[in-house]
Design brief:
The complex is a heterodimer of chains A (767) and B (1096). By secondary structure, chain A is α+β, with helices and mostly antiparallel strands. Helices cover 31% and strands 22% of the residues of chain A. Chain A has three domains: 167 residues, Immunoglobulin-like, CATH 2.60.40.1670; 241 residues, Rossmann fold; 171 residues, Severin. In chain A, the strands form six sheets. In chain A, strands 8, 9, 10, 11, 12, 13, 14 and 15 form an eight-stranded mixed sheet that branches. The relative contact order of chain A is 0.11. Chain B has 1096 residues and is of the alpha/beta class. In chain B, strands 11, 12, 13, 14, 15, 16, 17 and 18 form an eight-stranded mixed sheet that branches. In chain B, strands 4, 6, 10, 19, 21, 23 and 24 form a seven-stranded mixed sheet that branches. The longest helix of chain B has 27 residues. The N terminus of chain B is likely disordered. The chains are: A alpha+beta (767), B alpha/beta (1096). Chains A and B meet through strand 10, strand 11 and helix 5 of A and strand 14 and helix 26 of B. Strand 11 of chain A pairs parallel with strand 14 of chain B, so a sheet runs across the interface. Chain A: One of its GO terms (cellular component) is COPII vesicle coat. Chain A: Its main location: membrane. Chain A: It is a peripheral membrane protein.
Chain lengths: 767, 1096
């Protein structure tokens, strides 16, 4: 077992890949019976400090339908200077520059440790990165002030040659021209009217080449600035201007009468941003960063009317089909998101408001383009400020942790086909021999576009075994998959990262144990969760839960050891032991439960769930709980109500929240002021320890979690209470009055009940 | 003519006489009465009899005429007399007249036939003076008699002549004498009389103007004698003037003053006049006394005139050939006379139905219960009691209302009455506002509405006891009970949305396309605005204007500017979505000038720089207005847009226009399309503007066709103004543009106004002309209204009027002042009603009539072919005059043209209207010019139309340099120009300085600072500033002329025989125009023919 764990870990570190199954069932039928699909979590740009990119271009298989890239799995004939493609078996000549290779003089891509390798493409023009700020001005004064400061600050974080642009909106949408010297100039659009990209470009004067300039100085046609230069300028040139401009930004001046929401034209603003970039910089790395402080209230993409007495849609309304604007708005934003994706740009959404801001409708903008989605209460919070700052953080090379306009291509050996992907991507609709007809997630293609990604962006990629049962894979045969990610690096280089992996085939009937042992239950849980969440976007919640339950039961039936009709005999091997528990918490998670969450929150949670890597995803599914006490060093404890004890401090990390919870006794001590007494220094340390740990998490996490410092009986303690397994509730009376934990007032089933039930069903022959 | 006349005259006389009587009564009565009070009156009262008497004697009408004079008093008592004389003379003495005619060579040609071309009485008189004219005219027309209304007078004269010799004896004598012999005599008297009347006969004419007033001729018989005496001349002068206003008093004074005046005017004026006048006087003395000084020719002829009498016989033959221009009514003379007669005393409005002095006369007004003529002028101050009468007369009943007219400093602006929360007191039924005509009854507890007769309760807080005359004790303490014009503070009920309005705003919208930049306009404008913004209109003594300002520039797209005071730099906001215009900002767009001064200055500095390199030539237009309107809407205020625009808006946007200028359409049925807007979009837009109280002033700087007809739709419907500067160049047009701009920005404006004209039962306002919008048939909606804008209202009968109670008009204007105060301005006017047509004709005002007719015609061209419109005008005019002739003038030969005293200028003015650019364009007049003028005239007041259609031509070098007064004008005809002189010509829009080819070198030197005529730059627009009396005087005169007009007139120096002279000659409206417009004389003949056709 240990070997598999190590293998898994090693693979993850090297290739950024985690498979649900690390030994693959060799036939389609068997694969289906495994319940959990053959799939992987791929982190295309996983940070690899030890992997310097090579400065040449990859060697491609010459077969036009293959075009796989030379990799360590290929057979090479050094003498003949030939190599055989391991996907299509085509024999290829090495290019002339490879003439001097030999067994001892191998190019990097042939070395086994370079199963993941990155190439830098030297060809092609390099365009600077583009950052287009789209700023809501219908904010409270201090909110706007904070936002302005954040934006001004961000200018110093941008690469100096990056192009930056500014669009502000409220009732109107203003596209600011940045090139003017003295007078600040902006183009204004009505917030209620959607415009085509062409119209927008016409109105911004982007369609006509700057003829006058040319005529005026015929001698220097080369220096003629790009027409778009008026709106997008290199940071270093207009740093001061833009700082001033941001400084002078006013709140939307249109009066808002009592009982009304401000008119906010988010839909049109985004549309204009998209149109602007579409016309000027298609297919170059660009971020549209939308900062909004409330729901769109007019024009296309409006989410709620401006009457305050009509509240914004809730899940209840949606279920009752009572959300009048939702469908139209969603359609609008989807259309925008698709256009943006086509152009290779990405959209970030920074939504800070106490009420919902329409993330439900807008989510696709971030989801489909690989943009960020950040939700906070106010721009004047560290949550937003630090999150925003983190966007511009740099890696060990001093490069921004962002990449643009990526396409991910997946090539498989013949026994496999690609069924789909789930993550911040859109299909490029590239059919090919390796594309399955059955779709899981975004399928029907072997290539996806990921307009914006960072080192943690992770996709779930689902496969299908296609070999028939009667034509098993020869023993010892290996299936191979190659991931080719072409992207624009933040340094504006075009790069290609190639990861080629191989796994053994095994006959499921004869080698089931083998396969079982190679099961990665963490990856499997996350991959199943992604499927579930993906389904939840389009299906009713209960259906998804039922589906999940059924899958779990079937998995237990397949891999459990039990006597029929005897629940007590049920056992699961170690490699499956945690899986039911993940499923239990997943069922309770906000990704599948909408109760107590607004539609926006659900969208927000799901957004992050669909892009974080395995570790983070697991935290999201099953939050981590640490306990601090005088009894020993901090220890992870069960996410269970029994862990809530009076003399403990708990630190819970749900990914979205960091909760520090002081037990009842601790609170009393603190009230008594022991921490200030020198003789109780240890108490002070105890209080401090979780804070320090929390800080550590906060520093590393993107987006910044909500940081909650609460105590026994505090209102915010609900964050903790709602997460823990309700092993003690008001229903199981025996727990009352005991000192072993805190009862949770809920009717939810506890893990114990859940597992009992699961056992019963698994051993039953009925299903 | 005479001959012809003679024949017909007889019968006519009979008829006319009675009419005369009427006349006498009116004008004559007054005047004459004064002069020869008793008699004249007697005559009046008994005019008829008098006439009859005359008649009888007048077997040859002449005799009766003599008597008639008194009767005729009204019209041309004098004139008539004169005419009569003429007519008769002519008729009978055909030859005699001719003789006179002969004298006037020019005339002769005209009046080929010796007909009695009696022109308008007064004016005519002069011409008449030359009785020949009549003769001439007649001659020409053969049948035509120009003799103005006078004609009738003539007869009397004639009559008088015989007997009263002393009297208009002329007339009398004429007839009797049958020939000129009579004339002279007749003339003499007639003049006096005629003048009174007007077109009285030629002789009178000469003197008529002056005399006309005198006309006292009415006094007829009695006077005559006196008249004949030395008085005649004097009377002639004094008489006329006086006569009109105060009959009684006038006569005597007239007599005296007249003489003096007469001489005075002529004397003082340039030598020309003096010479002429003398001539006249001579003539007058000789025959008339009233000699008109006007035309130089006169001098000659006149002298002859006297001769006429003697000559009669011989001259005849020759004269017939041509009508002497001097013999036909002269606007100059009429104006001069009115100035002399009525300029000195204030016009007190207390009496109902008084005809005010002419617009060309400077006079003061004392409001004693009726609105000042500065606010309201009517075509007639005596309205026929029945619609039948009105139809018969065809005299349009119209009022030209200028509700916010500027007053001279000596006159107080209307008092503001604040009735507190209850608001102004109104009639419950017709909603008329409290006014001096309301009758308080039941001890003051109730009042009876003077408009609808409804009895209303007087609210307790308004109660006041009545004195023994039934008048409220506090009548004189309350403006609304004692004055013709006053204002009420409006309560919130009178406000839009029941909210008091916020102060209005001005938005400057500047075209920054290539043309505007290149011509230097933008730079000039921005520079000017910086200082001009300190002079936004303020109300009363306010220290600072309440008006906020905003700025927009545009070409194909619009640029709004945020000039909020807190900004360090203005911010520009571009709106490219012209298809669906909106306002991009609210706060910071409209700002207080003093608060945002720095930002505004910075903006105005930068605008020219920002667009200095622009290559954008396309512009939009409708979206610009839309934007301004939306901005005001967003700010919830009324206001005014100042648009500075250069080119046809061809950019893709609403209101996009095509170049549709097509000269081939002229004189076709499709010509009207040139005046119609290309698209209905602008009307719709205008409607929205009006609803928002958004007034649009448009400054156009076209280099080519811009379709003024369409572009001016919005300004027109929103009560705005259009200014056009073709081929604008900073060097040449800067002064004019800036001056217009300053005035336009600084003038007081009322916003978001609604005007309603209420009338007493019996008549009703049925039609409105001017720059405004109407969404129903009664309310005139004006987004903006300034002191230059005039609304002409036409009335029709819908019932019988009562002679006793007269007819009342109340014009109520609800508006928002510059400071944002909501107010009601009320103007009241009481008119007389008459059962006699003569009363109508005696109380008409030709200038106002022309104003109405021009507007009517100019609106007509939108829907009918221009020719139809012209014909309609001519027909109507002929009908008016024919009706007079038929019903009011004393009998005379059909060959005589007899014009009512008050309307003797109608033909000449009408001719000017007919040959104006709109109705008869010359080759050089562009479609835009026509449309421009068309819309300009639409909101002109009477003074403006007067000078616009009949330009003022002032000789500069004839009068001594020292004289401080404006030189007397001369008639707008090339014949009046002497090549040794320099003339100024102005029509309210243009100003020419014409330099004769043989002007003295010294004059050239002192005016132009060059040594000879040939060195004067033709087309020069500025006179060098030289320190010599002549230069100072001329420049001073130019300045004062400009000051009188609402638009700056750019000076153009025209040299005789120079290319530019063509342009100048276009304004010599008495001459035949190149485009086919008839000369005055020709038209008069034509008119006469028309009339005769109608009569037969």
């Amino acid at each position: 077992m240990a070997t598999y764990l190590e293998f898994i870990q090693q693979n993850e570190e090297r290739d950024g890949v985690r498979f649900s199954w690390n030994v693959w069932p060799s036939s389609r039928l068997e694969a289906t019976r495994m319940v959990v699909p053959l799939a992987c979590l791929l982190t295309p740009l996983k940070e690899r400090p030890d992997l310097p990119p090579v400065q040449y271009e990859p060697v491609l298989c010459s077969r036009t339908t293959c075009r796989a890239i030379l990799n360590p799995l290929c057979q090479v004939d050094y003498r003949a200077k030939l190599w055989a493609c391991n996907f299509c078996f085509q024999r290829n000549q090495f290019p002339p520059v490879y003439t001097c290779i030999s067994e001892v003089n191998q190019p990097a891509e042939l070395m086994p440790q370079f199963s993941t390798i990155e190439y830098v493409i030297q060809r092609g023009a390099q365009y600077p990165l583009i950052f287009l700020y789209v700023v809501d001005t219908c904010l409270e004064e201090d909110d706007l002030q904070a936002l302005k400061e954040s934006l001004q600050m961000s200018l110093s974080l941008l690469p100096p040659d990056a192009l930056v642009g500014l669009i502000t909106f409220g009732r109107m949408v203003q596209v600011h021209e940045l090139s003017c010297e003295r007078i600040s100039k902006s183009y204004v659009f009505r917030g209620t009217k959607d415009l085509t990209a062409k119209q927008i470009q016409d109105m911004l004067g982007l369609t006509k080449p700057a003829m006058p300039m040319q005529q005026a100085r015929p001698g220097q046609p080369q220096e003629q600035p790009l027409v778009s230069s008026r709106f997008l300028q290199p940071v270093h040139k207009i740093d001061m201007n833009l700082t001033d401009l941001l400084g002078e930004l006013q709140r939307d001046p249109w009066p808002v009468t009592q009982g009304k929401r401000p008119l906010r034209s988010t839909g049109v603003a985004l549309s204009i941003a998209v149109g602007l970039l579409e016309g000027t910089f298609p297919n170059t790395g660009a971020r549209i960063m939308l900062f909004t402080g409330g729901p769109p209230t007019q024009g296309p993409g409006m989410v709620v009317g401006d009457e305050l007495k009509v509240p914004i849609r809730s899940w209840h309304d949606i279920e009752k089909d009572n959300a009048r604007f939702m469908k139209k708005a969603t359609k609008h934003y989807e259309m925008l998101a698709n256009r943006t994706a086509t152009n290779g740009h990405c959209i970030d959404i920074y939504a800070c408001a106490l009420d919902q801001t329409g993330l439900l409708e807008m989510k696709c903008c971030a989801n489909l383009t690989g943009g960020h989605m950040v939700m906070g209460d106010s721009f004047n919070t560290s949550l937003f400020k630090q999150t925003f700052q983190k966007i511009f953080s740099k890696d060990f090379n001093g490069d921004f942790r962002m990449a643009f306009g990526a396409t991910l291509e997946v090539k498989t050996s013949r026994e496999l086909k690609v069924a789909g992907a789930i993550g911040p991507c859109v299909s490029l609709n590239v059919k090919g021999p390796c594309v399955s007809e059955n779709e899981l997630g975004v399928g029907g293609t072997s290539q996806w576009k990921i307009c914006g990604l960072d080192p943690t962006s992770t996709l779930g990629i689902y496969f299908e075994v296609v070999s028939q049962h009667n034509a098993p894979v020869p023993q010892g045969g290996r299936g191979a998959i190659q991931y080719v990610t072409r992207y624009q690096h933040s340094s504006t280089q075009r790069r290609i990262r190639v990861t080629t992996i191989a796994r053994n085939w095994a006959d499921a009937q004869s080698q089931l144990r083998h396969i079982e042992a190679a099961f990665d239950q963490e990856a499997a849980a996350v991959l199943m969760a992604r499927l579930g969440v993906f389904r939840a976007e389009s299906e009713e919640g209960p259906d998804v839960l039922r589906w999940l339950d059924r899958q779990l039961i079937r998995l237990c039936q397949k891999f459990g050891q039990y006597n029929k009709e005897d629940p007590t005999s049920f056992r699961l091997s170690d490699s499956f032991s945690l899986y039911p528990q993940f499923m239990f918490h997943l069922r309770r998670s906000p990704f599948l439960q909408v109760f107590n969450n607004s539609p926006d929150e659900s969208s927000y949670y799901r957004h992050h769930f669909a892009r974080q890597d395995l570790t983070q995803s697991l935290i999201m599914i099953q939050p981590i709980l640490y306990s601090y006490s005088f009894h020993g060093p901090p220890e992870p404890v069960l996410l269970d109500s029994s862990s809530i004890l009076a003399d403990r401090i708990l630190l819970m990390d749900t990914f979205f929240q960091i909760v520090i919870y002081l037990g009842e006794t601790i609170v009393q001590w603190r009230k008594a002021g022991y921490q200030d007494m020198p003789e109780y220094e240890n108490f002070r340390h105890l209080l401090q320890a979780p804070l320090d740990d929390a800080q550590e998490i906060l520093q590393a996490r993107f987006p910044m979690p909500r940081y909650i410092n609460t105590e026994h009986g505090g209102s915010q303690a609900r964050f903790l209470l709602s997460k823990v397994n309700p092993s003690q509730t008001h229903n199981n009376l025996y727990a009352w009055g005991q000192e072993t934990g805190a009862p949770i007032l809920t009717d939810d089933v506890s893990l114990q009940v859940f597992v009992d039930h699961l056992k019963k069903l698994a051993v039953s022959s009925a299903c | 003519m005479n001959v012809n006349q003679s024949a017909p005259p007889v019968p006519p006389f009979g008829q006319p006489q009675p009419v005369y009587a009427g006349y006498h009564q009116s004008s004559y009565g007054g005047q004459p009465g004064s002069t020869a009070p008793p008699t004249p009156y007697g005559a009046y009262n008994g005019p008829v009899p008098g006439y009859q008497q005359t008649l009888p004697p007048g077997v040859s009408r002449a005799p009766p005429s003599s008597e008639a004079p008194p009767a005729s008093t009204a019209q041309a008592p004098c004139g008539q007399a004169a005419y009569g004389q003429f007519g008769q003379g002519d008729v009978q003495n055909g030859p005699s007249s001719t003789v006179q005619m002969q004298r006037f060579p020019g005339s002769q040609p005209f009046g080929s036939v010796p007909l009695a071309p009696v022109v308008s009485q007064p004016a005519v008189l002069q011409p008449y003076g030359p009785p020949p004219t009549s003769a001439q005219v007649t001659a020409q027309l053969a049948g035509m008699q120009i003799s103005g209304a006078v004609a009738p007078a003539l007869p009397p004269v004639g009559l008088g002549y015989g007997p009263p010799t002393s009297l208009a004896s002329a007339s009398g004598s004429f007839p009797n004498s049958g020939l000129y012999g009579s004339y002279p005599q007749g003339q003499a008297p007639p003049l006096s009389q005629a003048q009174g009347h007007l077109g009285a006969q030629p002789p009178q004419r000469s003197a008529p103007p002056q005399a006309s007033s005198f006309t006292s001729p009415a006094s007829g018989g009695p006077r005559m004698p006196s008249m004949t005496g030395p008085l005649l001349p004097g009377q002639g002068f004094g008489g006329p003037s006086v006569s009109q206003p105060n009959h009684v008093s006038s006569p005597p004074p007239q007599a005296l003053p007249p003489g003096t005046q007469m001489t005075g005017p002529p004397g003082p004026p340039p030598p020309m006049h003096s010479s002429q006048q003398p001539g006249y006087q001579l003539q007058q003395n000789g025959s008339f006394g009233p000699a008109r000084g006007p035309q130089p020719n006169y001098g000659g002829p006149y002298p002859g005139a006297p001769t006429f009498g003697s000559q009669p016989g011989p001259p005849q033959p020759l004269p017939p050939k041509r009508l002497d221009p001097d013999a036909i009514p002269s606007p100059i003379q009429v104006i001069e006379d009115d100035r002399n007669n009525r300029g000195s005393e204030p016009f007190v409005t207390g009496v109902r139905g008084q005809v005010p002095p002419l617009v060309t006369t400077n006079f003061l007004v004392k409001d004693q219960g009726n609105a000042s003529p500065r606010y309201i002028r009517c075509t007639s101050y005596n309205i026929p009691c029945t619609s039948d009468m009105a139809k018969q007369a065809q005299v349009p009943l119209a009022a030209v209302i200028k509700p916010l007219a500027r007053l001279p400093p000596e006159e107080a602006s209307p008092y503001v009455v604040d009735h507190g929360e209850s608001g102004p007191l109104r009639c419950n039924r017709c909603k008329a506002y409290m006014c001096p005509f309301m009758q308080f009854v039941e001890g003051g507890r109730r009042f009876q509405c003077c408009f609808c007769s409804c009895i209303n309760d007087v609210p307790p807080q308004y109660f006041q006891h009545l004195d023994h005359t039934g008048k409220r004790v506090d009548a004189y303490d309350r403006p609304e009970l004692s004055l013709g014009s006053y204002e009420f503070l409006a309560t919130v009920d009178y406000c839009k949305n029941n909210k008091f309005p916020s102060p209005p705003a001005f938005i400057f919208m500047i075209d920054v396309s290539y043309n505007a930049i290149r011509s230097g306009l933008v730079r000039l404008l921005c520079e000017e605005l910086k200082s001009l913004l300190d002079f936004l209109p303020r109300e009363g003594g306010a220290e600072e204007s309440e008006i906020r300002v905003g700025f927009v520039t545009y070409n194909k797209v619009l640029h709004f500017y945020n000039v909020k005071s807190s900004l360090a730099q203005p911010q520009m906001m571009v709106v490219s979505d012209v298809a669906d215009m909106f306002v991009p900002l609210l706060d910071g767009f409209l700002v207080n000038v003093s608060e945002s001064r720095a930002v505004i200055t910075s903006l105005l500095d930068q605008i020219p720089e920002m667009f200095a390199d622009t290559r954008e030539t396309e512009t939009v237009f409708a979206p610009v207005i839309q934007a301004g309107m939306e901005a005001l809407k967003a700010a919830e205020c009324a206001g005014k847009l100042f648009l500075f625009h250069t080119s046809l808006p061809i950019a893709e946007a609403p209101g996009k226009l095509k170049n549709r200028d097509d000269r081939k359409l002229i004189n076709t049925d499709k010509e009207k399309t040139l005046f119609q807007p290309q698209t209905g979009a602008y009307q719709t837009l205008a409607k929205e503007c009006v609803a928002q109280g958004c007034c649009v002033d448009l400054f156009l700087f076209p280099n080519q066709y811009v379709d003024v007809a369409t572009l001016s739709v919005v300004p027109q419907l929103t009560g705005g103004s259009v200014y056009k500067y073709a081929c604008f160049q900073v060097e040449n047009d800067q002064e004019r543009f800036l001056s217009d701009l300053r005035r336009d920005v600084q003038k007081l404006v009322g916003f978001d106004a609604v005007m309603r004209v209420r009338t007493s039962t019996g008549i009703r306002a049925v039609d409105f002309f001017g720059a405004f919008y109407m969404s129903n048939t009664t309310d005139v909606e004006l987004a903006g209204l300034d002191g230059d804008k005039t609304v002409t209202v036409e009335f029709k009968h819908d019932d019988r009027l009562n002679e006793e109670s007269g007819a009342l008009l109340q014009c109520a204007l609800l508006y928002t002042s510059c400071a944002g105060q909501r107010r009601l301005r009320i103007h009241n006017l009481a008119l007389n009603c008459c059962t006699q047509l003569a009363d109508l004709y005696r109380n008409c005002e030709t200038d106002t009539l022309i104003n109405y007719m021009a507007k009517f015609a100019y609106r007509g061209v939108l829907n009918s072919p221009v020719k139809t419109v012209r014909d309609t005008l001519i027909t109507q005019c002929a009908q008016i005059l024919a009706c007079y002739r038929k019903n009011c003038a004393s009998p005379s030969s059909a060959g005589q043209l007899i014009l009512p005293e008050c309307m003797k200028l109608l033909p000449v003015y009408l001719n000017c209207v007919l040959k104006s650019d709109v109705l008869q364009p010359g080759a050089e007049v562009t479609t835009d010019d026509r449309a421009y003028v068309r819309q300009l005239v639409t909101s002109m007041d009477v003074a403006e139309t007067n000078v616009f259609f009949y330009p003022r031509l002032l000789p500069l070098t004839k009068s001594p340099i020292e004289s401080a007064t404006e030189p007397p004008a001369v008639r707008a005809s090339e014949e009046r120009l002497s090549n040794g002189d320099i003339y100024l010509l102005e029509n309210g829009l243009n100003l020419f300085l014409w330099v004769g080819a043989s002007v003295q070198q010294g004059v050239v030197q002192s005016l132009f600072s060059v040594s000879s005529f040939s060195q004067i730059t033709s087309g020069l627009s500025v006179l060098p500033v030289l320190d010599n009396p002549l230069s100072k005087k001329v420049r001073g005169l130019i300045d004062s002329l400009r000051a009188q007009r609402s638009r700056y007139m750019k000076l153009i120096v025209v040299k005789q025989e120079d290319k530019l002279e063509m342009l100048f000659k276009h304004f010599l409206v008495e001459d035949k125009s190149l485009s086919g417009g008839a000369s005055y004389v020709d038209f008069l003949c034509h008119m006469h023919k028309e009339i005769r056709q109608l009569l037969s």
